[in-house]
Amino acid sequence: MAEVKPEDMVHHPPMDQLQGFEYCIDSNPSWGEAIALGFQHYILSLGTAVMIPTMLVPLMGGNDHDKARVVQTLLFVTGIKTLLQTLFGTRLPTIIGGSYAFVVPILSIIRDPSLAQIADGHTRFVQTMRAIQGSLIVSSSIQIILGYSQLWAICSRFFSPLGMVPVVALVGLGLFERGFPVVGRCVEIGLPMLILFVALSQYLKHVNVRHVPVLERFSLLICVALVWVYAHILTASGAYKHTALLTQFSCRTDRANLISSALWISIPFPLQWGAPTFSANHAFGMMAAVVVSLIETTGAFMAAARLASATPPPAYVLSRGIGWQGIGTLLDGLFGTGTGSTVSVENVGLLGSTRVGSRRVIQISAGFMIFFSMLGKFGALFASIPFPIFAAIYCVMFGIVAAVGLSFLQFTNMNSMRNLFIVGVSLFLGLSIPEYFSRYTTSAQQGPAHTKAGWFNDYINSVFSSPPTVALIVAVLLDNTLDVREAARDRGMPWWARFRTFRGDSRNEEFYTLPFNLNRFFPPS
């Protein structure tokens, strides 16, 4: 075999910005394309907006009407939070939606004896919602203080490209349970969706209509429409008449009961469930979820910047975004969404799938959320899409985000045994420890931490059930204690240093400057 010459070997130099994007963060497609892409992001965001209330509202004692109202409220507030974040926060093209990180402390509130003993279901639902609202309002102060005081910017000085690899990777990989395990609940719908989406978005992506790569850019809308019709045909033909209840719930297009339960017009408003109630025990437990969502959001912001073809957000901008996320969690508490805030990871992945990282597209998507949440019946129609369809899309989107995390390895020296150790251990423990907590909770019906102090249990069970949070703790600890002085170049710090301050790179002003000339009043550090 002929010897390979050095000049024939392929070399890919590290890139500050991801290449090959049709539209980056501050460039915009035509209005027609932008509206269609915004509607596509809206459809994708429905998965989480419906799944969280579907899981929690029945446990709170609520009925289908209550569930429909919570879904509408969550979508309405998601639209507001997204507009605030894209205008005044990091300005990255990110949707700020509901978070699964808050499930552990919310379940603790639901199981509180003072609430669980209420006999009437609707009364119990309202009282539980008020308790959740109070906890969210109090705990939101953590993110608001850390963000606007720039304390999170100071904490981020301990981050490096090497430390961010497992955190960003596990923002995607850590959600594996919402992927194929949910597809498998109705494989005759989920698997065709997965195969069709990959085929259209990747293998047929060069099919153009009037110079627009329609199948690459709008494959999600096309696939959802086709498979949704297919699922409706199966439902109408009686294919699931004699199947198990779980199969019917996962496969049928008429099991969510959202359309029949939703009002034609309903505008969510603050304190719609009544005055929030406050409990120190509940609030302290909820603070753990706020910290977890803060870390998960940080990783998602890093991924979104890469998939918007922007430079990494400077520490000042990152902290500003966390402050606005705290405002988002405060709005969750005021309106009563039943959960807190985080970046929608699936929508970050869609930026890469469509190769459109435009901020305007996400802002249009937020407009759709607000509009359809007020037109209850129409919003409920789209929200009745079976979960396995969303799960099939998640298999791709979460994978893209995970791969973005791994792409930070290009700025580090992976021929260093130190770096291999840190990445390997943090990735493994980031998956293994939360899996232990999940299995323990499933078998014992309580978390590994089950002392008499409920708030302490929520802290431990929330923090160590989050893969990105465990990965951050392990990676940052090891990266800042193992041979730090000798390993600065291996960690990627010379490249990272330019993006730690707002004025460190000229592109930061282009991507992250506030609108309406607000930087005059809030000068970046």
Automatic annotation (TrEMBL):
Recorded GO MF terms: transmembrane transporter activity
Lineage top rank: taxon: Eukaryota
Presence of keyword GTP-binding: no
Matches recorded under SUPFAM superfamilies: MetI-like (SSF161098)
PANTHER family per UniProt: XANTHINE-URACIL / VITAMIN C PERMEASE FAMILY MEMBER
Mode of membrane association: Multi-pass membrane protein
Identification of the protein by name: Nucleobase-ascorbate transporter 2
Leader peptide range in chain numbering: none
Predominant cellular place of this UniProt entry's protein: membrane
NCBIfam families, sorted: NCS2_1 (NF037981)
Similarity comment: Belongs to the nucleobase:cation symporter-2 (NCS2) (TC 2.A.40) family.
GO cellular component, one term: membrane
Subcellular location per the Swiss-Prot or TrEMBL entry: Membrane
Keywords: Membrane, Transmembrane, Transmembrane helix
Residues spanning the membrane: 39-58, 94-110, 131-152, 158-176, 183-203, 218-235, 256-275, 281-304, 361-383, 389-408
